[in-house]
């Protein structure tokens, strides 16, 4: 009789712990647009203004809905090195970033998550430098 009571108590406790773990582990999906802010700097962390910043989707597919851009978007950096306004996207994505100014170039990537702002830094280095991050 005592074993049966202990078994029932342990079974009920295990069920409650399992249900509590299931409820606590559920994550609500993020909603709203995702934003991308990019800052262009040099090797000494000095902001670079008027650098072209180019966002693109790696591979052949594109998530961009504007057929005129063919999956490419360009902006210039302002005096602080940041884009004047962040890019806005509705879905989760990984994007390539390339920035150029004169004889300098830098590359990076960013992961966009809906409902969050992703920040990326691109370091400009001379063309031919193997540390630009570009392939």
CATH superfamily of one domain: Carboxypeptidase-like, regulatory domain
The Cα radius of gyration reads 24 Å
Q: Assign the CATH class of one domain.
A: Mainly Beta
Query: In angstroms, what separates the terminal alpha carbons?
Result: 72 Å
Show unreliable segments: none
Count the beta strands: 8
Average of pLDDT: 80
- As a percent range, the share of strand residues is 35-45%
CATH topology of one domain: Immunoglobulin-like
Write the layout of secondary structure elements.
Layout (H helix, E strand, L loop, with lengths): L1 H24 L8 E8 L10 E5 L15 E5 L10 E3 L3 E9 L2 E9 L4 E7 L1 E2 L9
Parallel strand pairs: 1-7
Antiparallel strand pairs: 1-4, 2-3, 2-5, 5-6, 6-8
Question: What can be said about this structure in brief?
Answer:
This protein is α+β, with helices and mostly antiparallel strands and 135 residues long. It is built from 1 helix and 8 strands; from the N terminus they run αββββββββ.
Q: What would you say this structure looks like, in words?
A:
With 135 residues, this protein is α+β, with helices and mostly antiparallel strands. The protein is 18% helix and 36% strand. It contains one helix and eight strands. The protein is elongated. The mean pLDDT is 80.
Which terms summarize this structure?
135 residues; alpha+beta; Immunoglobulin-like; three-stranded mixed β-sheet; 36% strand
